[in-house]
Amino acid sequence: MVRRFENTNYWTVILGGSSGLGLASAKKLASEGMNICILHRSSRAEMETINQEFSLIKNENIKFLSLNKDALNLQHQQDILTELKNVLGSEGKIRCLLHSIAKGNLKPMIGDENESLSADDFAITLQAMATSLYDWTKLIFNDNLFAEDARILAFTSEGSSKPINNYGAVSAAKAALEAISRNIALEFAPFGLRSNCIQAGVTDTRSLQMIPASEEIKEHTKKRNPFKRLTTPEDVANVVSLLCTNEAAWINGCIIPVDGGEHLS
Questions:
Q1: Please, which of 52, 72, 104, 111 could form a disulfide with 125 given CB 3.0 to 4.6 Å?
Q2: End-to-end alpha-carbon separation of the chain, Å?
Q3: Which residues contact 45 (CB under 8 A, 6 or more apart)?
Q4: 40-to-13, 194, 255 alpha-carbon distances in Å
Q5: Confidence of residue 110 (pLDDT cuts 50, 70, 90)
Q6: From CA 171, how far away is CA 106, in angstroms rounded?
Q7: Cα angle for residues 129, 260, 179 (degrees, 5° grid)
Q8: Over the stretch 124-141, which tens digit does the pLDDT of each residue have?
Q9: Closest by alpha carbon to 240, among 9, 12, 6?
Q10: What are residue 197's DSSP bridge partners?
């Protein structure tokens, strides 16, 4: 395999990379020589499995930093930046900021007060899954840690424009995420940043499994997808890698479906 990011001193910072699309992207980029920093919030019970996955990344002979800290917490953000600057040193630069935080409230709009969506549920979901993209873009930008040609990538879904039961707060966050990404693409372009959203098809991740009726969603997707299968994390990771290449520098401000044509029907 050609390790196209070998000896570039490039880093990817992944917000939420301990599982799912973020972890698959970390593995793919590391296999191509990209240095990796993963920010995640994981319990002790989860860490044994997560560390096994992280060991596979380390085996790619790249620099690797994992921080089990809350990327949404102001104090933790400063601690993370300090550790990140130490590991980057004078030569390292961040080629890619990848947003893969999946922290949203999955509740119906109708029901008892404690069981239906509240304003707080919307606010928490929007911060985690939308505005944090801007927060981290600005934090890294202000500390001059981005490469001259850098990529801001975030994962959205078809739910940003189509209603799904129990998905109201996440749907709102995904729509906001796309709007924020577009404005980053416009306002940060003079400084070398390109910003795009990847609209992944239905993928059997832990996030999907938390959605009520996820089994029905998967079966319906297999019927409507032209290739009659779900999207895999590896499908999405391949596109993350492509968007980090020099050849992808003119792609900016887009929402890119990565679903095998699932969106066509």
A1: 104
A2: 36
A3: none
A4: 11, 24, 25
A5: very high
A6: 10
A7: 30
A8: 999 999 999 999 999 999
A9: 12
A10: 154, 255
